Amino acid sequence: MFDVISDRFDGIFRRLRSRGKLSADDVEEVAREIRRALLEADVNVRVVKDFVNRIKERATGSEVAQSLSPAQQVIKIVHEELAVTLGGTTGHLSSSAKPPEVIVLVGLQGAGKTTAAAKLAYYLEQQENKRVLLVAADLQRPAAVEQLQVLGQNISVPVFTQPTTPEEVAIAGRQEAERLGRNVVIIDTAGRLQIDDGLMEELNQLCKKVVPDDVLLVLDSMTGQTAVDVAQSFRAQVDLTGLVMTKLDGDTRGGAALSVKEVTGLPILFAGVGETTKDFEAFHPDRMASRILGMGDALTLIEKAEAAFDAEATARTQERMAEGLFTLEDFLDQMQQVRKMGPLSSVMGMLPGVPKELRQAEVDESQLGNIEAIIYSMTPAERKDPSIINGSRRRRIALGSGTSTQAVNGLLKQFTMMRQMMRQMNGAKSKRKGGKGRRGAGVDIPGFDLSGLDIPRPPGA
Ligand SMILES: Nc1nc2c(ncn2[C@@H]2O[C@H](COP(=O)(O)OP(=O)(O)O)[C@@H](O)[C@H]2O)c(=O)[nH]1
Ligand SMILES: [Mg+2]
Fold first, then answer.
1. Pocket test for ligand 1, best of 109, 115, 283 (most atoms within 8 A of CB)
2. How many other CB atoms are there within 10 angstroms of residue 3's CB atom?
3. Is the CB of 114 under 6 A from ligand 1?
């Protein structure tokens, strides 16, 4: 996601950090580099101009000149302005006075509407305890209805349809939701390959009849500035309340996401970040800015983790981690839990402080069966303390599990990685809860504040 722009900013900031005071020329040069990076990422020219001007203005002001670390200050400014460009504050769905809440998804063919309908349903059920009814109002292709039915079945959300007209299905769907006691209705509509009047007419008819609380335009972020143009055309003809950017996982440049709010004034509310139904997030401009600038995104990760982990298992793990007892058996358990959060590779990308190489490492998810076999082929002592697994033990384990020594090595490496990951998550979490963490001192003595003392942490704490 956003690799091109992340890489470029990474380079710019690295050069910046190596400087002490910043001269006017330095600021000018950084602004030029940022401009080039944004244009390369296919960001709208006007948006780039505004952005660079804001950076220049703030970077030449006293806020930077008086700062102890001018480079750091510039990075902070870029981060803040990036968040502004992405929409500023986090947007929300309109809440309806009288349930059910009706959400209509519109967009071009292939943008990801049907997928987004199911993803949003899953998201609202999981994160907001809503009870959703999906409505298939794309009646142009029979396969479209079937696609939604299959997706709905996978997430156990009912799907309503009937072979009439889109607006009649939508109205009947709303009544069905009332009958079933569902408090959200998500209506999937037909797209076209291009914007045309027939489509707009159809959507306007539908919206006039069902009076939706939200009309979300689904945009394929991989189409770059075309997506922004599409948004402009739709906005001119349909009353939109927000945007869903799909396929951000395949978008190396990010030009659409970085332009569309400023150009259209419409907030991005959600992002599709992968093919499975779980790969869907509320769009937080500030967190997205952090992710683009390689600052990680601990909060989104924690939310995902909280949704996936049951509290008890998390508490147990944290205890075991704290006591340095985390074993390969826990690893197996955790691995299965983490997989619930989505592809491991996307989880890694959100961790602050994880080296870029590690973030981009291919994590082969089909290997879980092997991993299980390998762990089961270990003795209890080996599972508890993998450091005793020497060459001959590795060969024995490989034979016993029907895998190879490379596979065993790979697993042990992943285990180490996982341990590091869990530690980071626990760290980020205790910070967010407002606790001071265990600054400096690794020892807590009731009644004494040891945070000012430089007591080394005991190993493993
Ligand atoms: N990688 C990825 N693929 C997506 C995402 N959203 C949708 N797709 C794929 O895009 C294609 C079109 O999606 P679909 O929902 O059928 O589009 P629709 O015509 O607008 O309903 C499908 O193959 C989806 O799997 C996403 O966020 N990431
Ligand atoms: Mg569709």
1. 115
2. 15
3. yes
CB 149 within 8 A of CB 173: no
Give the CA distances from residue 209 to residues 15, 63, 151, 172, 386, in Å, rounded to whole numbers and listed in that order: 57, 53, 26, 11, 64
Query: Topology of domain 3-85, per CATH?
Result: Four Helix Bundle (Hemerythrin (Met), subunit A) (1.20.120)
What are the pLDDT digits (tens) for 383-400?
A: 888 889 999 999 999 999
Q: Alpha helices, DSSP H only, in 43-141?
A: 45-60, 62-65, 70-85, 113-128
Is the shortest distance between the CB of 275 and ligand 1 below 6 Å?
A: yes
**CATH code reported for the domain at 101-295:** 3.40.50.300
301-432: CATH topology: 434 Repressor (Amino-terminal Domain) (1.10.260)
Ligand 1: which residue has its CA nearest to atom 7?
A: 112
Amino acid at residue number 354: V
Residue nearest to atom 17 of ligand 1 (CA): 112
pLDDT score for 368: 62
What is the tens place of the pLDDT at every residue in 259-318? 999 999 999 999 999 999 999 999 999 989 988 887 766 556 666 666 666 666 667 766
Q: In the chain, list all ranges with CATH 1.20.120.140.
A: 3-85
Q: Where in the chain is the domain with CATH 1.10.260.30?
A: 301-432
Any ligand 1 atom below 6 A from CB of 119: no
Q: Relative to the alpha carbon of 190, which ligand is closest? A: 2
